[in-house]
Amino acid sequence: MADDTDYGARAREELGFSRWWLVAAAALAMAVVSPYQYVWSSIEGPLASDLGIPLPQLGLVFTLFVIVQSGSQFPVGWWRDRHGPRLLTLGAAVLAGGAYYLLSFATEVWQLYVLYSLGALGVGIVYTISVNTALKWFPDRKGLTTGVGTMAFAAGAALFIPYVRGNATAGGYGDVLQNMGIVICVGILVAAAVLRDPPQSWYDARKADQAAAAEANGTEDASKRDYHWKEMLRTWQFWLMYGMFVAVSGAGLMLTAKIVSFAQAVSLDAGTVTAAAALLPVAGGVGRLVMGELSDRLNRKLAMAASFSLCGLGLFAVVAFGQTGTTVGFLAAVVIATFFWSPQYTLFPSIVADYYGEANSSANYALLYSGKMWGGVFGGAVAGWVVTQVGWTTTFQLGGVLALVAGIAALALRSPGPAPESVTRPIATTGEDD
């Protein structure tokens, strides 16, 4: 028997307005910080030209972004689960908006490293707060609502890319960075005014609903207690998912960071290069929404297996069509690879909440998301080095193999069952900042 509780009506009683406004606020914040990940390949050239340095010297900037954005999420999630999202989101507005604005004044490479890393901290805050807002308020629509937020993180960049590529010349990119910094700051501030977490009574009622559904269905009550992060680390399912996360993010971040350079290396025309850069965030955003909704309705584990395997096949197709100079085939392959890679950021948080509960979802998913650090190391610095050793073809094919392995591994996943009673339950969020 499925849980048919009307969570929308219950949330309206708590909030005084529709819970979908929380998703809209989270999506806005995610959209405005998306340039950090998806527009970097379009601004690194003008930055390198202005500083008079070889482009490869900026490769570490993207790697640092991924490390800081991913690594910051566990302490951010731990704090948020206990104190709510508001103060953190206000800090993110200053960090993410201010750092992008100040990039226009950088005169040394180390300044780019520092500013982009500070901005990455702001992006990490926005990301964990936005994703887990969906998990906490939408236990009935995890895949769809995390898909909306993470879609905004990917597709939002499509609104910025034409503006950036049309104006980010060596002489004009300063104004671009400043204008985008202002937009980033204002967008996050608007979200901060709306976002909040459920009170403890919400989680207590949720547990009662799950227990009643289990009793009516004659099954074991899996809702006894949410997993603490220490308990989660003792399950083999977490470590299998961690390996999958590293593999898939490595393949996808390589595609994101290197697609422009790859297209230029195989002598595709400038129009194709621009189209590929613009299609990446759009395909990724739509993929997150579609696969998230399908995983709610069908089977989350099988959705992961299919999605990651198709991502791997798409990367092989990117290489094949790029080598033959087939523009339409190349762009279609980019869309397929990105469409099926990007849902990892919808499917993983959803299955973590399925397996380990929603009350501690921010800290629990943040630990899994830290795998993006290693994926970023591969997608940025390591992939750049591999290209110099074996060439573009083998490098992208290696990414395809990683995605295929993750897809096959997903078939082994299963629920760890109810959380053990051996660890004291952490203090649950009050929904307000202390």
UniProtKB/TrEMBL annotation:
CDD domains for the chain: MFS_OFA_like
PROSITE patterns, alphabetized: MFS (PS50850)
Keywords: Membrane, Transmembrane, Transmembrane helix, Transport
Protein's name in the database: Major facilitator superfamily (MFS) profile domain-containing protein
InterPro entries, sorted: MFS, MFS_dom, MFS_Riboflavin_Transporter, MFS_trans_sf
GO annotation, cellular component aspect: membrane
Protein's organism: Halogranum salarium B-1
Gene3D superfamilies found in the cross-reference section: MFS general substrate transporter like domains (1.20.1250.20)
Membrane-spanning ranges: 20-38, 58-79, 86-103, 109-131, 143-164, 176-195, 239-260, 272-290, 302-322, 328-353, 365-388, 394-413
Membrane topology reported for the UniProt record: Multi-pass membrane protein
Keyword Protein transport: no
Location of this chain's protein in the cell: Membrane
Record-level Gene Ontology MF annotations: transmembrane transporter activity
Domain Major facilitator superfamily (MFS) profile: 22-418
Protein origin, superkingdom: Archaea
Pfam families: MFS_1
